[in-house]
Amino acid sequence: MQAGTDLLCRLFLCSAGRVASFSFFLYSGIMINIDDFKKVEIKIGEILSAEKVENADKLLKLSVDFGEETPRQIISGISMYFPDLTSLVGKKCAFATNLEPRTIRGLESNGMILAVSTEDGKFSLLETGRDIPAGEMIK
């Protein structure tokens, strides 16, 4: 990367049919203190199932294992990136897990999947290796 060139990336927190886009520049931007960052609980979750939400073009209903007693339901606006929903099953991804539940289209969402997108349309979930257990905290 050339000196003085900033790379724009967008972090998407996808939940309850809303994609909250947080744009940031690598090597420049707003600084937060470590105490603010520590408030966000980010865990690895394994996607057990994914299905389209009826009458919603962008929404998926995910069942995600976080190593808890029961899987969590997460509603996410990422369906346009996954025409084959079976490709999501078994993926271990990063999720924000200590957000207040949200209800959309009658479905409760209990977390947000983390993903990244670039201005030229590239998209990726933030995935881990298969050997990382569900429920592990990102440190």
Explain what you see.
By secondary structure, the protein is mostly beta strands. The protein has one domain: Beta Barrel (OB fold (Dihydrolipoamide Acetyltransferase, E2P)), CATH 2.40.50. It contains 1 helix and 10 strands; from the N terminus they run ββαββββββββ. The chain has one helix at 34-38; strands at 7-15, 18-26, 42-52, 60-65, 72-76, 92-96, 102-104, 107-109, 112-117, 123-125. The strands form 2 sheets. Strands 1, 2, 3, 4, 5, 6, 9 and 10 form an 8-stranded antiparallel β-sheet that branches. Strands 7-8 form a two-stranded antiparallel sheet. The longest helix is centred in the first third of the chain and has 5 residues, at 34-38. It is globular and about 40 Å long. The relative contact order is 0.26.
Oligomer: single chain
Class based on secondary structure composition and strand pairing: mainly beta
Considering the protein shown, what is the CATH homologous superfamily? Nucleic acid-binding proteins
CATH class: Mainly Beta
Q: What integer value in Å does the Rg equal?
A: 15 Å
Helix content: under 10%
What is the number of helices?
1
Give the count of structural domains.
1
Percentage of β-strand residues:
35-45%
Mean pLDDT: 83
Principal-axes geometry comes out as: globular
Which CATH architecture is right? Beta Barrel
Largest sheet: 8 strands, antiparallel
CATH topology: OB fold (Dihydrolipoamide Acetyltransferase, E2P)
Number of E-state strands: 10
Order of helices and strands: EEHEEEEEEEE
Distance between the termini: 27 Å
